[in-house]
Write a structure and sequence with these properties.
Layout lengths: L7 H15 L16 H13 L3 H11 L5 H18 L3 H14 L4 H13 L3 H14 L3 H9 L10 E12 L10 E4 L2 E4 L9 E17 L2 E13 L7 E14 L2 E14 L2 E16 L4 E14 L7 E15 L2 E14 L6 E14 L2 E14 L11 E13 L7 E13 L7 E12 L2
Antiparallel strand pairs: 1-4, 1-16, 2-3, 4-5, 5-6, 6-7, 7-8, 8-9, 9-10, 10-11, 11-12, 12-13, 13-14, 14-15, 15-16
Helix pairs in contact: 1-6, 1-8, 2-3, 3-4, 4-5, 5-6, 6-7
């Protein structure tokens, strides 16, 4: 609904008629005094303070009403507070938190979900905004509102020039090095005992993930987007530290209701405090709405990888993927992804083709968002490695369950709990492993 509006005021004005068409805003009923005033009187006081520019007094009054025992009064107070924070003070992140709290209690309010989508768009969270638009459509929209939503579906953001996100978690892991538990390794010259240091190691790590971006408008429907991403799994034994940093930059085009992005940039990886690999990658993505509730995203990428540990693993990589996301109801949705990768290495034993499929379900339960996912992939190597009697032909299974606990939210950060399970079945012992891991941390909510 908000993709190519050229100014923040237009993006802000867009949803005002939508919310007016959806919102039912009669004067709240009087159900007892709040700090000496009835709710109706306190609403009147807050509205007057807001209209005269006394935002501090208005916010205090709205927040007092937001603690009322009546859910309708709480909802109305948070909605007016969110509108004031967004349109009067441009505090989009704080406004998003208020709209999110309303939906935690009343997930079927399409007008509030549209306001939350507008805040995500203001903050530059385009995919989150699109998700909320699909959820609002799943809730059902009046025909006149649905028409406005379709009309502005290609104008999704006010194109915030910069932003970012971060996630920090403690991560107990049963297999931090994804290694085998086998005692022996079969080779063409006999069986060898595997050193204990080469077997699976458990440990407690610190997982860090973050992303920052900068967007520069270079045309009515074109942006230049630069991204910096970093992730790290850090352990007391630095020999198992795994750090990845990447930068990507390129144009992003709005074409009708579609979005096309091209990017190129380097990727660096360190393992055990030593350079592990460097790569140059280029990618193209196409995002296309397939209906009011669903969206298709396809991506193709190529990369040139220089392995610092083993020159025989230097390779060229080619990948394709397609993902479909659908909102089934305002608080329940699903997604499916298929992908394939071809890695052509200097040694055919390290060359392989991988194909896989994964799916996820998400469900909002009160102020908790649950996400369950499962995946399967098959790897086939071109040839066997000279040391091993069999060629790699592996089946990999994954599953995860994550919960974001907004009940304990502080500002824009919310606690996150995630459980992971992974199993790789391989005829070559060093590639055969099991892994169970957990993460307990915080994530940026908006």
């Amino acid at each position: 609904m908000l993709r190519a509006l050229s100014a923040c005021c237009l993006a802000g004005a867009l949803l005002l008629p939508i919310s007016a068409a959806l919102a039912d805003e009669p004067a709240p009923p009087v159900q007892g005094p709040v700090v000496g005033l009835s709710p109706a009187e306190l609403f009147d006081f807050a509205d007057q303070a807001r209209d005269t520019g006394d935002f501090a007094a208005a916010e205090a009054a709205y927040r007092a009403l937001a603690t009322h025992r009546d859910v309708e009064i709480r909802t109305e107070a948070r909605f007016r507070l969110g509108r004031m924070l967004a349109d009067g003070q441009r505090k989009y992140r704080e406004a998003a938190i208020e709209f999110r709290r309303i939906l935690d209690e009343k997930p079927d309010l399409a007008s509030v979900r549209l306001e939350l989508a507008r805040m995500h768009a203001k903050l530059g969270n385009l995919r989150a905004a699109e998700r909320e638009f699909r959820a609002a459509s799943a809730a059902g929209l009046p025909p006149e509102v649905e028409q406005i939503v379709r009309f502005y579906a290609h104008a999704l953001s006010s194109r915030k020039p910069f932003g970012g996100s971060i996630e920090i978690a403690l991560a107990p892991d049963s297999n931090i090095n994804r290694a085998t538990r086998s005692d022996s390794l079969g080779t063409v010259i006999g069986n060898f005992a595997i050193n204990e240091n080469a077997k699976a190691r458990s440990g407690l790590g610190l997982n860090l993930r973050g992303q920052a971006y900068y967007r520069q408008r270079i045309g009515a429907r074109t942006d230049l987007l630069a991204r910096l991403s970093a992730s790290g799994n850090l352990y007391r034994d630095a020999a198992f530290n795994d750090i990845i940093v990447s930068t990507q930059f390129g144009p992003e085009y709005s074409i009708g209701t579609d979005r096309v992005a091209l990017s190129v940039g380097p990727v660096w990886r360190w393992y055990g405090q030593q350079p592990f690999s460097t790569a140059w990658s280029a990618s193209a993505t196409w995002q296309h709405p397939t209906g009011k509730r669903s969206q298709l995203r396809t991506e193709g990428a190529v990369a040139r990888i220089d392995n610092k540990f083993n020159d025989l693993q230097d390779s060229r990589s080619f990948s394709l993927s397609a993902a479909l996301d659908r909102a089934l109801t305002p608080k329940f949705g699903a997604g499916l992804q298929i992908q394939a990768t071809r890695e052509a290495a200097r040694d055919p034993g390290y060359s392989n083709v991988t194909a896989g499929v994964s799916a996820y379900l998400f469900r909002e339960i009160g102020r908790t968002t649950l996400v369950a996912s499962a995946g399967y992939s098959r790897l086939e190597a071109d040839k066997r490695l000279s040391l091993f009697p069999r060629r790699r032909a592996e089946d990999r299974y994954t599953a995860s369950l994550a919960a974001t606990l907004r009940t304990l939210q502080v500002g824009s950060f919310a606690p996150l709990v995630r459980l992971r399970w992974e199993r790789n079945v391989s005829p070559v012992e060093i590639y055969d492993y099991r892994r169970v891991a957990a993460e307990f941390g915080v994530t940026s909510a908006f």
